Amino acid sequence: MSPPLHDGQGRRFEYLRLSLTDVCNFRCSYCLPDGYRKQAGQPTNLSVDEIRRLVTAFARLGLWKVRLTGGEPSLRQELLEIARTVAAVPGIRKLAMTTNGYRLADRAADYAAAGIDALNVSVDSLEPARFAAITGHDWLGEVLGGITAARRAGISAIKLNSVLMHGVNDDELNSFTAFVAEHDLTLRFIEVMRTNDNPEFFNDHHLAGAVIADQLERSGWQRLPREAGAGPAIEFAAPGGRGRIGIIAPYSKDFCASCNRLRVSAKGKLHLCLFGDVGIDLRPLVQDDAQLDELTGRIVALTATKAPGHRLHQGNSGATPHLASIGG
Ligand code: SAM
Ligand code: SF4
Predict the structure, then answer these.
(1) Would you say residue 6 lies in a domain?
(2) Ligand 2 centre and the CA of 101: distance in Å?
(3) Which residue, by CA, sits nearest to atom 10 of ligand 1?
(4) Looking at the domain assignment, is residue 288 inside a domain?
């Protein structure tokens, strides 16, 4: 096998986030507050065969984990076929999905059977009315029921994702920690990130990860040492031993140094950074199995050019209108 994919900073990439669709049925206030709007003239999503070739090329370069994301990946009609296809690519050892939990209770067993072995479920509030205000849907009960169903279906690696926002849901920190400890779950608090579409929302509601870390430590949560090769989350263990919390703080110092992921959009564009410039089109190279060598060569060459860090601190969010467009 070729050596692991790396860039000029020596960062290794073993993890691909693959968006299956830009479409979403939620209207999260920080992401798609007015809901998904179809843009005219957009290419179709990558087909199942194109995805198979793309993932095969990355796997030949040592990448072993794929996360299906979006938009909302559960809205993609061929989701189960895509999951089975990706899980069957030689070298892929972990298939994860990030979802808003839509119809998860009905589908968890199908996801597990298709090879999805890890789920991140986004839950920004544990209060039904507030969950509805943030997402546009009064579905908190269904989403939590979906998490229970996913556990029953044997998906053992389940994480909650919560964007903690100043003046929106930051008063729920203690409810989240109690929930995590009660159910022995892992939760990731994600700092709200500035995108091209949400600068005002960001200015009003951004809450630094350091503030959350400080509050956790004051309540007895223990900061865990970073494991080699771990992603960018700062991890904490619960005082009683049940439950874990991670903080994704892209504005913190050294965040980019631990970046271990690459992204491909639903239309086949490689994004070297969530906040980079426009993606680079890989689609012309996934049309035929005979192109695999050319595709792997192109991925290696492009990855080597990954910038050392984002430019968020200079107020530059790159070309990303919102995270639904390339898969957060
Ligand atoms: N629709 C799925 C979901 O919400 O889980 C998957 C796609 S969504 C873009 C992936 C993650 O990005 C979600 O956990 C969401 O909360 C997070 N996200 C979206 N926009 C964000 C922003 N501006 N700042 C921080 N997190 C964001
Ligand atoms: Fe949809 Fe996920 Fe964006 Fe919410 S965060 S609007 S669920 S893509």
Answers:
(1) no
(2) 10
(3) 328
(4) yes
